Protein 1
Amino acid sequence: MKLAAIKGQNRVIDALKRSISVNRVAHAYLFEGPDGCGRRSAALALIQALFCKEPVGGDACNRCSSCCKLVSGNHPDLHQLQPLPDKRDITIEQVRELQQILSLRPFESSRKGCIIEPAERMNEKSANAMLKTLEEPPGDAIIILLANQSDRLLSTIRSRCQHLRFSTLGTDVVTGILLEKGFEQARAAKLASLSEGSMKRAISLDGESDLADREKLLSLLTNLSSVRIGSIFDQSESLASGREEALQSFKLIISLLRDMMIIRSSGCTDISNSFLYQELADEAARFTQSSILDLLELAIAVRNAVQGNANSKLAIEHFMIGYAGFRKGV
Ligand SMILES: [Zn+2]
């Protein structure tokens, strides 16, 4: 991937391109930001640009043998350091092994590259063992640390890296990337609105029936009526066939109520379920601000009770009766 193809992180990408153009690329970088915002893609793109045999304007050509190997994940000079599958931490043994590899001559490129992810998982021993390597990587190697929260790293690690902060992606950026990946417009917009600025989350939501569930739940709530109490009992059955289903329903209900709260108090459109904005705004108008807050508190309390093993069906009924009671105009 080219640096120019990284979306939604212009400030960081411009800084990297500038460093390449004046030949002042750092030996060690710390890319900090939330999951799914492009840190890893940017790290790979930077290494690709540096390894490329025919770079164009400082960026990778995406065609030479080096670029092809990096894109297919087969470049012998790119190394990755991450916790082993059965381990919590990146161990000091792994760090020593990496140091050994970095001390050897590169196979194809003029230098080696290494991505450490997540850098927070280096324990104190392994982090301390890494310090000298970060300060003077052998053979001109470039080392890129990826972290969610840099304050969880040793200050001595942070101070040896050039620190670049990545931001959460805008909804429009996530939509654009999903469209490029071949998603249909409506689906892309829905996934983006729920992604909280994370491509990782957008893609993982795609595998869930979560979106349709949110829509269905809201429609169910908007059809609740305190005068047709029988319908509440029917609906509760469908939402609480088991404890896990009830917890999932409460997770979605809490998310919908939070959005109603935001809309009712500020009219703000920046909500989690923005694809349901109009429906949520219409529904929020049937409540006072304080009754939405009461319902949110009720939903959280009832969810906690289900987590503590209360009867799921009774819990859902309890919430729905409360909801229907607060709802105006039915
Ligand atoms: Zn190339």
Protein 2
Amino acid sequence: MVVRMRHNRSQTRSRRSHHALKAGALVVCECGASRLSHRACPTCGRYRGRVVIDMTPKAKKGDKAQAQK
Ligand SMILES: [Zn+2]
């Protein structure tokens, strides 16, 4: 038996009153873009002033195969 089946509508809605999503805490990155706090920047790939994600565009598979020939 599911929790939902043991409750009336009022109890169900009261429980769900806490289920709303809140907006994430946005901060401005050192590159100028807004990002989520405590997350690496999706624009420049930095976290705490250090580059943690390589954001340079990678060559496609076809390009690499053609370059070797
Ligand atoms: Zn950034």
